[in-house]
């Protein structure tokens, strides 16, 4: 049975395809609760108002995969974790350009292990049992492992198990072998993922929480391929205008947001409502200069302290200066 929200999206998609003059943007997103305003903007016809058709590309693997899609020009825009994009630009990726903050509040990462891993009771135990599950090299789950290690008093974890997605990460810490047809992965001791996305699996007993860590920066940003910034500037401006309207709609219709998240994503209504009390979207995306201190300086300093960035300050600064948007969009 289609929900009312899903039927509304389907209706807008049909009407969009009949208008051949519409501009098309390919937008990659992670299918979590943070994506809700993007789809509210579609539901309410905000993209269509700007003669814009959005082809959404679902990316459950995380920010590392988002970056790969942008690098290969398979998508025009991606919405993902601040630290992943800042780190990749600072390391020299000139194929992407960070445009602005999407979510102003920090992200709460839960540190999880298998439900029967009795040898792991807290994050301090990871100094002894330290193979960390990550979605991809360069993803937020990878970068935050350096931040966690730094907080625990050592430079970095030395072993990683690349697991591609959240399901594989859960199986990895539970020492389950990949099933036929599944993406291969190695057994790991712990992994980090957004708290509310993880909570359902704490409640079911599939995994257990042994710690948590907040990002010291606003959590989500909008990033474009360098090519799209050059060739689709007006379309990107229109997309961002639509997203601002979607965020406004979200803020004014929390009950509807809870219903959508509980019906279409992997959350209970109770968890979805609790999350809405913690999240703060940027309701003026592209309308003010990017907060350089919070997004760039603070993130870069933590990444340098954690050992993720090792080039000189001049080299890192030049890369960020060229590939982080500073003015209104």
From TrEMBL:
<feature type="domain" description="Ca3427-like PBP 2">
    <location>
        <begin position="109"/>
        <end position="213"/>
    </location>
</feature>
<comment type="similarity">
    <text>Belongs to the bacterial solute-binding protein SsuA/TauA family.</text>
</comment>
<dbReference type="InterPro" id="IPR054364">
    <property type="entry name" value="Ca3427-like_PBP2"/>
</dbReference>
<dbReference type="Pfam" id="PF22384">
    <property type="entry name" value="PBP2_Ca3427_like"/>
</dbReference>
<keyword id="KW-0732">Signal</keyword>
<dbReference type="Pfam" id="PF13379">
    <property type="entry name" value="NMT1_2"/>
</dbReference>
<protein>
    <submittedName>
        <fullName>Thiamine biosynthesis enzyme</fullName>
    </submittedName>
</protein>
<dbReference type="GO" id="GO:0042597">
    <property type="term" value="C:periplasmic space"/>
</dbReference>
């Amino acid at each position: 049975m289609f929900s009312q929200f899903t039927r509304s999206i389907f209706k807008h998609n049909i009407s969009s395809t009949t208008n051949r003059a519409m501009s098309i943007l390919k937008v990659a997103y992670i299918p979590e609760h943070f994506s809700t305003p993007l789809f509210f903007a579609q539901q309410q016809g905000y993209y269509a108002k700007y003669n814009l058709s959005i082809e959404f590309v679902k990316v459950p693997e995380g920010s590392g995969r988002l970056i790969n899609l942008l690098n290969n020009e398979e998508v025009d825009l991606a919405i993902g974790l601040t630290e992943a994009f800042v780190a990749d630009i600072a390391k020299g990726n000139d194929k992407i350009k960070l445009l602005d903050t999407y979510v102003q509040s920090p992200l709460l990462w839960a540190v999880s292990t298998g439900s029967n891993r009795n040898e792991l009771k807290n994050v301090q135990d990871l100094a002894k049992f330290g193979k960390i599950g990550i979605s991809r090299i360069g993803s937020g789950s990878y970068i935050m492992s350096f931040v966690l290690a730094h907080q625990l008093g050592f430079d970095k974890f030395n072993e990683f198990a690349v697991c591609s997605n959240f399901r594989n990460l859960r199986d990895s810490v539970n020492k389950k072998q990949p099933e036929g047809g599944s993406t291969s992965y190695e057994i790991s001791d712990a992994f980090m993922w957004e708290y509310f996305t993880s909570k359902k699996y704490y409640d079911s007993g599939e995994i257990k929480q042994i710690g948590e860590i907040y990002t010291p920066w606003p959590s989500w940003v909008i990033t474009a391929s360098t090519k799209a910034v050059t060739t689709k500037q007006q379309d990107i401006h229109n997309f961002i205008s639509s997203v601002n309207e979607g965020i406004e709609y979200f803020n004014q219709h929390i009950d509807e947001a809870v219903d959508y998240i509980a019906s279409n994503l992997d959350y209970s209504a109770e968890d979805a409502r609790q999350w809405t009390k913690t999240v703060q979207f940027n309701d003026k995306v592209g309308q003010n200069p990017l907060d350089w201190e919070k997004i760039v300086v603070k993130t870069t300093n933590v990444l340098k302290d954690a050992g993720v960035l090792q080039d000189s300050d001049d080299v890192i600064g030049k890369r960020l200066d060229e590939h982080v948007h500073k003015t209104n969009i």
